[in-house]
Design brief:
The chain is globular. The longest helix has 43 residues, at 451-493. Helix content is 78%, strand content 0%. It has helices at 2-26, 30-35, 41-47, 71-103, 107-110, 112-124, 128-134, 137-156, 161-189, 195-223, 227-247, 261-284, 289-311, 325-355, 360-388, 390-407, 417-432, 435-444, 451-493, 497-510, 513-551. The protein folds into three domains: 67-257, Growth Hormone, Chain: A; 258-315; 321-563, MFS general substrate transporter like domains (Growth Hormone, Chain: A).
Length: 563
């Protein structure tokens, strides 16, 4: 069933891309066509002589048409759209147990509601550079919100798993367009010396949405039917779509690149298979034939995609951005941080809900203050980036993040609720100084014509890094849990008079020796799971420390590339 789903998603995504391509080209406004009659941006940069005079700071704003456009309204509706799209990704996690019961499906099958969403995003993001050059920002925004709205409608009416799956795929297609669109709009609208503050503002949507998602879902699940979540998503999606139609009138010159069907195919197979393989590795183990085969197919597909893009004069995704040293170095640090972050975000809810017995609402409320701090600190960190550069912010942020992650290696059954909240708040405060600034630093190293390609490369590798980090940490947790449980069980079977007396006393309280043994084994399992989680957090700490060491080699404040 998994293989069928994988190929089904890939085919469905390609059909969506081709359909949107055909519709948008037929409905492209005439004024945009006129804007592209002359040489393309790339052609102009190649033919014009290199000037020794520094261009004016506001040059990037010439890349878009802002006539009769209210920039605050554009940014407002864009942030709202990105917020609900990211929020939608987190809603399903808490609701999975309920959906498993309602649809009468297995856990592995239900997991496709999240895995499928991730796969479609991973397929669409690599071709986002092509989309940005083919369609206007307005067309892409309206298309993404339309897909998101109809996907939410389908989910809200779903009475069985296949219908729910279709709705999630349509939602993911919309979100996969919207996320890289937001980054490109912010990088294009704002001059380089203000991009830090701008991207910090963008980070509010990217940070707050995952924070409130589990809390909202937990509350809805406890008090209402799960369909209410998607009714709400449909409503907010429709409101955002109508606001976008009225306010989002941002356009940019288009270069009309040809649609590279073979490149899309290689990208779909490569990144889709790779993401699926790493996501399943956390569940099935690294020695699973499905995991090994999909990772190998993914690597072959990515290699074929890279070779094709390098051989083309006008590639769909120009991976030559990796030749820019500063972009590649910041991207490498970003990937390491993402691996540590995504895996940690999964482990902590497991500890809170499965081991400590906190409700989804309680665990969501515990994580909320940290995320609020990130949202508040993000714009401040962005302004500091514009003033001081990435190096001092990265060192400060990664120091706090490394220490906060190390504190999570000390978790036990007695760690208080508020202690965990304080640790997470400190860790989140540090992350605010690294997440968006490191992305902005990398993008500032690129010329304007390469920003869509750099954005697509960055988001794609972050997606892959998140899957790899999750797979590694989950694998460490599960295997170490098994090892610790085996060690504890060996001690359990030894003839320890103290242990025997304890079991006898517990048996008298519970009514039977069998109940006492089961209770004791449950305790051992919880202890072993905690040890497995803390071992995984040790790996996350090492990754964070590695990123900290690398941050000392970053450049200080540096003039951005204004080409």
């Amino acid at each position: 069933m998994s293989t069928t789903f994988l190929f089904g998603y890939s085919a469905f995504t390609i059909l969506i891309i081709i359909g949107v391509n055909w519709i948008a080209r037929r409905s492209r406004p005439s004024n945009i066509a006129l804007a592209t009659d002359g040489p393309t941006l790339e052609e102009s940069l190649e033919t014009e002589p290199t000037m020794s005079v520094t261009p004016p700071v506001a040059t990037p704003q010439k890349q878009v048409s802002t006539e009769n456009v209210s920039i605050p309204k554009v940014l407002t509706v864009l942030l709202i759209g990105m917020f609900i799209a990211i929020l939608n990704q987190t809603l399903i996690n808490v609701a999975l147990p309920v959906l498993i019961n309602d649809f009468n499906v297995s856990t592995s099958t239900a997991q496709w509601l999240t895995t499928g969403f991730m796969l479609v995003n991973g397929i669409l993001i690599p071709i986002s550079a092509f989309l940005m050059r083919s369609y206007t920002f307005r067309q892409l925004f309206l298309a993404s919100m339309t897909l998101f709205f109809f996907g939410s409608i389908i989910c809200s009416m779903a009475m069985n798993f296949p219908v729910m799956m279709i709705g999630r795929v349509v939602q993911a297609a919309g979100a996969g367009i919207l996320m890289p669109l937001g980054s490109n709009v912010f990088m294009t609208l704002f001059p380089p010396h203000k991009r830090g503050a701008a991207m910090g503002m963008l980070g509010i949507a990217m940070i707050l949405a995952p924070a409130v998602g589990p809390t909202i879902t937990g509350y809805v699940i406890q008090n209402y039917d799960w369909h209410v979540m998607f009714y709400a998503m449909s409503f907010f999606g429709l409101v955002t779509l109508l606001l976008g139609a009225a306010w989002f009138r941002l356009t940019q010159p288009l270069s009309k690149p040809s649609f590279d069907a073979l490149g899309v195919l290689f990208s779909t197979i490569g990144f889709g298979s790779l993401l699926y393989g790493f996501s399943e590795a956390g569940n099935d183990g690294w020695d699973s034939p499905i995991v090994i085969s999909t990772i190998v197919i993914g690597l072959i597909g990515i290699a074929a995609f890279a070779m094709r893009e390098l051989s083309m004069e006008d590639p769909m995704l120009n991976i030559r951005v990796l030749k820019v040293p500063e972009f590649s170095f910041t991207l490498f640090i970003n990937v390491i941080v993402t691996m540590a972050l995504f895996g940690g975000m999964l482990l902590l809810p497991i500890y809170l809900q499965s081991i400590r017995g906190f409700s989804p609402v309680d665990s969501g409320l515990l994580l909320l203050p940290g995320s609020l701090i990130m949202g508040i600190t993000g714009p401040i960190a962005g302004r500091l980036f514009d003033r001081f550069g990435i190096r001092p912010l990265a060192i400060f942020g990664l120091t706090l993040m490394t220490y906060g992650t190390w504190e999570l290696t000390q978790l036990n059954m007695d760690t208080s609720y508020y202690s965990i909240m304080g640790i997470y708040m400190l860790r989140s405060f540090g992350m605010a100084f690294i997440m968006m600034p490191i992305m902005t630093a990398g993008m500032n190293a690129l010329p304007m014509k390469m920003i869509p390609h750099g954005n697509a490369t960055q988001n794609t590798l972050r997606q892959v890094a998140g899957s790899i980090g999750t797979a590694i940490l989950v694998t460490v947790m599960t295997r170490q849990t098994t090892a610790h449980l085996a060690d504890d069980a060996n001690q359990f079977t030894t003839l320890d008079p103290t242990l025997s007396q304890h079991l006898n006393d517990l048996g008298q309280q519970l009514g039977s020796s069998q109940a006492a043994s089961m209770s004791w084994f449950t305790t051992l399992t919880k202890q072993a799971t905690i040890q497995g989680i803390t071992d995984a957090f040790w790996i996350a700490t090492v990754l964070s420390a590695l990123a900290l060491i690398l941050s000392f080699f970053l450049h200080g404040k540096k003039e951005p590339n204004l080409d």
